[in-house]
Amino acid sequence: MADQNIEAIVQKIVGDVLAQMTAPPTSGGSAQPVPVLKEKPVNEKDVVRRVVIGSDHTTVDQKAAVKTYLQSLGYDVTDIGPFTAKEKVDYPDFAAAVARKVASGECDRGIMLDGAGIGSSMVCNKIRGIRAALCYSIKTVVNSREHNNANVLTLGGSLHSNSELCELSKVWLETRFEGGRHWPRINKMMALEREERGHGSK
């Protein structure tokens, strides 16, 4: 799919999501359905189907936009909240929940949004088996997957437009780990995790 077509799709879906968020109820009192793509492309670039997504209270709207976009592409998206921006929450609670669903194998990958993405990345990497990457561009998204085999993506919701967040998420989910020369480095990374946990138990 051409880059301009991807951007057009992203812009349309994000626009629909935002319109739905502000649209008045219908005469029957129920909210209007959110339009999605009639044809759902399938991720044929990497074996990913189940995605868990979370946020803090400041990025609830951005999370909703990314969630709807990914669902329109055919992903099975689990939203662990929060679902309203009216009440303040602590991002570590939601970041940990995202990471645990990935670590347990319940979901293939995780995406977590907060104001800058930094705190959530730190939290996710406290969970055993998680390699969370804070990304801010297509280049860093691709690098995090090809070189580091990241299984959780953290994003700064306030640093990007909704369409950018959608595109970053899409590319991240479709990028394969290259393996090869990167495997020894990943193994060393995970060995450090096991080593530090071993010291902590003494």
Automatic annotation (TrEMBL):
Pfam families: LacAB_rpiB (PF02502). Keywords: Isomerase. GO terms for biological process: D-allose catabolic process; pentose-phosphate shunt, non-oxidative branch. InterPro entries: RpiB_LacA_LacB (IPR003500), RpiB_LacA_LacB_sf (IPR036569). One of its GO terms (molecular function) is ribose-5-phosphate isomerase activity. Belongs to the LacAB/RpiB family. This is Ribose 5-phosphate isomerase B, also acts on. It comes from Candidatus Moduliflexus flocculans.
